[in-house]
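[Discussion] Sanity-checking designs against the backbone

I'm trying to build intuition for which residues belong where. Below is a structure token string of 265 positions. I'd appreciate it if someone posts a full sequence so I can compare it with mine line by line.
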């Protein structure tokens, strides 16, 4: 089996970073293709993605589809893309020969970790791997909640806010509890749980960019007291952010947060 993965997405995207960080740790080849969010409607979403000219768009008019989640514009998704990625989302990943489609960023992350036969990033046996999956499932629930919340930040309402607050408290309580027992989340060594948590939580923290919009509607930041309320989780995020594979992947993404809160450096 040829190792590696091709990933297509708008960029930068913390969901893509999950697989990218794991690939760096495990030294597995990963090809990441895409463009900034505003340009991604001008790309053919396909196993071999490419930027489209106006002429291409006329020729490929049959592939023009309305965005379903996060994109309001038209997107050019090929029939092959929708066969391999039926929910039509990015990040989307493909096996090196382009025959297998993998979607959901946690599963794309798993696809990298599974290519390492003897490591422990996905647990050391099938029970541990299942425990890893348990955390990744919880992570996806949190991530789905924060996706809707981030979409709604400019026009917040009570329902969305209180759903997010409950999801945040439930999720962070579990992570904090686990970090009381283990050095990493769920284990005493790094796994893909930590990678997934790091990327999703960093993305959630983006609510901080909308503090003023939230205030005008009478809401405060849900993560306002994150360092005090969940000190072990805060510290874990900080320590992970210093690791080479994490730091080199996310670049300056968390710099604003480092300035905002004390003790993050
Ligand atoms: N839970 C998914 C979320 C993926 C997702 O919802 N992607 C959105 C963009 S944020 C998308 O591709 N939307 C395509 C569309 O609007 O049609 C993951 O972690 O990969």
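Best answer:
Here's mine. Compare freely.
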């Amino acid at each position: 089996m040829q190792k590696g993965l091709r990933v297509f997405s708008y960029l930068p995207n913390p969901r893509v970073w999950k697989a990218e960080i794991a690939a760096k740790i495990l030294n597995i080849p990963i090809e990441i293709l895409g463009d900034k969010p505003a340009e991604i409607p001008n790309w053919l979403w396909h196993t071999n993605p490419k930027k489209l000219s106006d002429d291409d768009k006329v020729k490929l008019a049959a592939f023009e589809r309305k965005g379903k989640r996060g994109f309001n514009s038209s997107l050019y998704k090929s029939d092959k893309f929708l066969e391999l990625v039926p929910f039509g989302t990015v990040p989307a990943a493909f096996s090196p020969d382009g025959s297998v489609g993998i979607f959901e960023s946690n599963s794309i992350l798993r696809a990298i970790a599974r290519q390492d036969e003897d490591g422990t990033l996905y647990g050391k046996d099938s029970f541990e791997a299942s425990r890893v999956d348990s955390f990744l499932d919880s992570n996806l629930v949190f991530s789905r909640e924060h996706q809707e919340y981030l979409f709604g930040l400019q026009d917040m309402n009570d329902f969305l806010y209180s759903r997010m607050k409950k999801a945040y408290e439930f999720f962070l309580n579990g992570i904090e509890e686990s970090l009381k027992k283990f050095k990493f989340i769920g284990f005493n060594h790094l796994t893909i749980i930590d990678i997934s948590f790091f990327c999703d939580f960093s993305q959630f923290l983006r609510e901080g960019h909308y503090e003023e919009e939230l205030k005008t509607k009478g809401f405060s930041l849900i993560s306002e007291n994150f360092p005090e309320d969940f000190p072990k989780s805060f510290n874990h995020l900080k320590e992970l952010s210093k690791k080479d594979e994490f730091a080199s992947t996310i670049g300056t993404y968390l710099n604003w947060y480092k300035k905002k809160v004390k003790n993050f450096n």
